[in-house]
Amino acid sequence: MRVLIIGLGSIAQKHINALKILDKSVILFALRSNINAENINVVQNIYSFEEIHKLNLDFIIISNPTGLHFQTLERLKEFKLPLFIEKPLFDKTGVLQDELVKSINTPTYVACNLRFLDSIIKIKEIVKSERVNEVNVYCGSYLPDWRPNVDYKTVYSSNKEMGGGVHIDLIHELDYVFWLFGTPKHTKSFFSNNSSLNISAHDYANYLWEYDKFAVSIVLNYYRKNAKRSLEIVCESGTYFIDLLNNTISFNDKIIFESSQRIADTYNKQMIFFIHQVLKNNDDFNSIDQANNILKLCLRD
Questions:
Q1: Could you tell me the domains of the chain?
Q2: How confident is the model at residue 133 (pLDDT cuts 50, 70, 90)?
């Protein structure tokens, strides 16, 4: 397998590790913008899009900053190669983005790895037979702890001009709600950046999605020091509480499902699915058109 990576940050390393586990003979390339860029042992550097034709690639991973995704996809569409795109798809939506999405006719997948968390997969099956009355989603963690030894104010997440913000970073939560329940009938949202983090990007987001028979509240923040990531589904029969960090499901405060899998483990499962399903054109699971629609829900005021 031969794979090109565009953007060699921390998330790219997770995809590299997943690929190496799946295929020990994988050949990895990276498109670098700087001729003096650091060499990574398992990756061969290239320095221009023109070199892509010579590589005989199986697919391309796009994991550069979100604000660069649009121009990257514009350059890549001519190669007609399958694309594995790190979330979110873009940092904005509009006519240009819609036209670009329509112009790409190869297998695509936008990475939302929480769909591969055991507890989320399990609750998707459970709620099919339940009458849902209310859903509450919460994800809060402390941004300065995300990247040890890096000034959090310098990274994409903190900077509005780089396309950052908690609503974009944690679009996973919106994605799995969409995956579980479909497209909401009506939406409202509120964003702010008034916390002690003192960053330009949104550090708080609150969404209310209305469905036919229930509503979903989604709260996201960057400033909670004791991390919490949860999904609560209030049904006629009782209340399900999913602790995503511990991968458990409780029903009326009694644990009914638990898994040793952790969120970090979902990257391998995600890559397996991409290679065996999406890459072979067997599934359009979170393709760019779907991800573009979810992004519109994410960015809507």
A1: 2-112 (3.40.50.720), 118-260 (3.30.360.10)
A2: very high
